[in-house]
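Input record (one chain):
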Amino acid sequence: MEAIKRLDSITAMAASVAEVTASLVREYLSRKGLKRTIACMDEELPRTESSINNRSSLREILHIEDLYRQNKVKSCPLKTLLEIIVKHQIENQHNKETYYQIESLHSTSSVGLNDTRPWTANINCENAIGSRSTLKELSQSDVTHSSASTDNLSCQPDSKNPKGYDVAKEPEKKSSDPGRNFGNRSNRMRRGMMTGPISNSHQDSNQRKPSRRGDAPQTLFRPEEEDGASVERVTAQTAKSRQSWSEPVALSRENSLGMVPKGKCETKNLTVTTRSCVDYLEVSEMVLDDIDDDGDLPVLSTLSFHASAATQNKGEYPMDQDSASKLKMLLLGSPLKSFSAEWKNQSFTFSESSDLRYGIVQNKGGPCGVLAAVQAYVLKKLLFDCMEIGSTDLERLRPSNPTRRKCLALALAEILWRAREEKHAVVAVNSGRNVFTSTGKYKSDGVLEKLTCFPVDNVSDLQMLLEQHIEQFASGTVGCLLLTVSALLSRSTEKVRQDMDVSTSTLIGAHGYCTQELVNLLLCGRAVSNVFDNDMELESGDGHTTLLRGIKARCNIGLLSLFEHYHICKVGDYLKTPLYPIWVVCSESHFSVLFGLQRELLTSQDSALPEFDLYYYDGLANQEDEIRLTVAPGKESAGCQEADLIPPLDLCIRTRWTNASVSWNGTEPLL
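The corresponding structure, as predicted from the sequence alone:
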């Protein structure tokens, strides 16, 4: 039992470590303003109930309250907890290394190794130690003895070099291995050798051996700094002696010792000081502001910003103010207007009701036309295009999360591909930052100013692109606007105006409702103003005619309108009898969807049809249960029913199946 409890404790600790680490990284990304990065992290590593979203709690768990307070009182405090921890670790490690170097220096000087070095240097011990706390561990006498011993070293011949050969000439004999003459770094440290000065001239930097990582940035530390010291300044005598060198000194990790010409041992006056590795990193430059807030970490909506081969090098471009002004003129009538909250907060989010998993939920009234069109194409994919062999009708209407997300991407691709006559499309996605700064007569509202556009020339790339960015459409706050803008860019604003009867009309009308032009653009690929078949010429009475544009061909998705029942408009057969048994229903200034499961509904004569079922879905009605209607063509109930009690949906159905009887199968009719 104890073993089981211990195992559970270890497992809980591992989970806690993972959550704390993830929260620490999120805190860093949040404080640095890396919104795109944290959004990608939230997508790949979603937050859980165990996630830590409060900085105070995070400090308590990590036990860094003291470090936090010490950092806060500094003149240039660090911004993130991760930087505070990293700086603390670097300083501690540097202090330990410096202590060991001083101990090694003391031991080597005490045994008299002055016969092994051709030159030496004075050491500023306090700077070399880099920490007053470490300095206390060494006696002042030890430091003085160490410095005095090194000052007395000279270039006298030793037993291994009795004739006093110039050390600088040795590499000429063994140039293939310059480090062999002096041993590795640890041996040099044991023998008391110090690294030589570094030339900062442009000539020296050009002649250094290039790194094997061709495109990698240069390392932050010079070779000397790996031993805990960096050259800060060179005395006038040393600078003068370096001018007499025949060629620049080449340094590498294997041999960081500078070659000194014969007779040039005056470098014992070279002053070497050190500074902390943290200072050389210049961590303070990363500071943006003080840490004053202890609030929660912001939770960003899950957005996808993945780049792929399909989206790279395809001419993607940021939105500009001129294009944004044209889009606002077309949608709202003026670049000084802003999108309503109903449009800015609407995406294509699916219902979690067990019976309505295929349904897209509408938050508030306004963009219902866009949502209904997308809902119709999603049903087309679910029921007919992507159906699995052997799947039942019930299974097709209860899709899994990956299936309905896949069908949404394919539905959006079909809409956009049809808008430009299946030759070209443009996908607009949210880049997470402003891509242009608005000036003049343009009102910024945080939507168009953040868009990046991806043009594609084939449907496969279009589908792949949408699948990669589907989170923006399904979960982002502006998914509905992204599709609308993408459709307009795919069609082009010029062609959209040519499609409409009145070129100055807008696509978003009064109260934020979709106009018929916008619905037709999404359903049929053309923003025509009418729903009858083909074009029609209208006599104006003065000898002139006006061309009214209609639907050119049979559409995949149909449309039924309550206005036809009241003889306000005429819906043509191209929309009444689409290729698939799915209709967008326009009733009471609202758009919803009506669909069937059998394509035979469209191939048989109405008089020969038996009773059949249609399903109705309204994303705005907070619908929780499935609505199944049974339609019997030509069998309208003989009973007299008051006109105001007939559901508008029944009247819409009868514009397609004349005198049909409609049964709501126990569901309360929608009046």
